Amino acid sequence: MEYIAVILPSLVVGLLFWFAIRALLNADRSERDAQARAEDEWDAEGNNNESKSSDSADN
To answer: Which tens digits make up the pLDDT trace of 5-39?
Structure first.
């Protein structure tokens, strides 16, 4: 039983560390996905505005 008492605190701290790192990595992945979607939308809007401005310049 004393072996469990010795190892248990290290296991708990290790699990807490693992959950924290996993949460950070998931948040980073989500942030990168959101940033990529926002940039894609921004690029699409920029292309739409350029085509509209070139259409109005032709008139």
So the answer is: 999 999 999 999 999 999 999 999 999 999 999 99
pTM score = 0.63
Q: Which two tokens stand for residue 6?
A: 């010795």
Query: 11, 13, 14: which is closest to 3 by C-alpha?
Result: 11
Residues 51, 49: Cα–Cα separation, whole Å: 5
Residue pointed to by tokens 């693992």: 18
Three-state secondary-structure class, residue 1: coil
Q: Which residues contact 20 (CB under 8 A, 6 or more apart)?
A: none
